[in-house]
Amino acid sequence: MAGIKQGLEQKQTQKLSPLQIQTIKLIEMPVQALEQHVREVLNDNPVVDDDAPKREDEPRDVSISEVEEKEQSGGSLEENYGPQDDDIPSYNLHVNNWGKDERPEYNTFSVKQSFTQSLQEQLGYRNLTDHERTVASFIIGSLDEDGYLRRDIESLVDDLAFRANIESSAEEVEKMLRVIQQFEPSGVGARDLRECLLIQLEDKKRTPSVENAIRVLDTQFDAFKNRHFQKIMARLHLSEEEMKAVLDEVRRLNPSPGGQIDDSYNDQAQQVVPDFRLDYENGQLILSMPRFNIPELRINRKYSEIMETGRVSESKADKEAAAFVKQKIDSAKWFVEALRQRQNTLQSTMQAIVDYQHDYFVDGDESNLRPMVLKDIAEITGFDISTISRVVNSKWIETHFGIFPLKYFFSEGLENSEGEEVSTREIKKALREMVEGEDKHNPLTDDELVDGLSSRGYKVARRTIAKYRAQLDIPTARLRREL
């Protein structure tokens, strides 16, 4: 048996400091979440305060930097910080993102409401038992982002039992699914495209064209899907005009009631407060950050006195109380410094994006949007790619031509016929324009789209065309053909 050996091994490991952890968390937060988090910090830390004295003669709170000075000098807080008329510099512990007006209002912009949140809200208006509401809520949480239920009923019953500890039955789940299928947007909760379209047609006023459309999708869906219109007309004894009316009805339906998802971004916030604002004035792009309300953090007078007492007292209880206050003060210091670092990181990253995409930000023309990935901005700023990713996530910018998530400006690139790198977004725009301008009686095939893009100077393979079509929700040529 081999003997036991004992030895020393030196390893180098890297641990994140409390300040670094704080900064990482704050960088990820959009501005609304940030302000809420600041409020929570104030509530959780009894030592810090953001309320100014209500009267001029009321003893004022003490800034953290002042406490540090007293710790070093050994002076008395009472001697130096009693009631007095002199104003206290607010820059000691104040993250100043305000303009001249002290409490400016946010610019808020409506974005589409969360799909799940909307369904849960509608569920709240239904007269259901608590058990039924729980089952229905679970079904809502099982829907795909496009609004479809891709699970079979029995699987949902099993999931309710094993994942949520809820006993149910196939009949009850089916019943609750029918309730959800009555919600807006119409077609939600469908298990396939046929059911989705039929739900929407059932919600419409019963006109002859709607009735015919229901008959076609209910009995001839496979033929309709494959554009075999002549067969449908013969089987259901429809005229060409009636068939065209059916196509018009179906064309107005939404095959993705949950909301279209593309490859660039998807945000589901109800309201957006832009983290950045970009103005174009006198030929110059001027970047600024919205003035979010981060309060001035100061040490509550009562706790500063506790700390002072602990320094001069021999009592163990007084010293323990002072140590508690000191720990809370350190926590506040880290938090404020993390706020400053967040501000600097976001400002530097967004400025790099603006500089990189300068031509695009001048007028918002997508053809000027350069290929750009996270690594490009990381190399410019010197930040890690993970940091850039955190900055980009859930952040928005207000420009003179619209409101955009930062993810929108990132895309891969391809070379054109001249060897220049162009954004995939530019190629997709050209592809969509070609499809919109095609003869719908004889739509362009993927090979013809390749040739068309090639004539415009874009070198794209056929498989790439198929990929972009799917991302843009453009069906194949056969499915785009019309009567």
Plain-language structure description:
The protein is an alpha+beta fold and 483 residues long. Among the domains are: 31-94 and 295-334, no CATH class; 113-190, RNA polymerase sigma-54 factor, core-binding domain (Arc Repressor Mutant, subunit A, Orthogonal Bundle); 192-258; 413-480, Arc Repressor Mutant, subunit A (Orthogonal Bundle), CATH 1.10.10.60. It is 50% helix and 7% strand. The protein has a 4-stranded mixed sheet with strand order 5-4-7-8. Strands 1-6 form a two-stranded antiparallel sheet. A hairpin with a 2-residue loop joins strand 4 (276-281) and strand 5. Helix 1 crosses helix 15 (316-356) and helix 5 packs antiparallel against helix 6 (130-141). The protein is extended, with a radius of gyration of 31 Å.
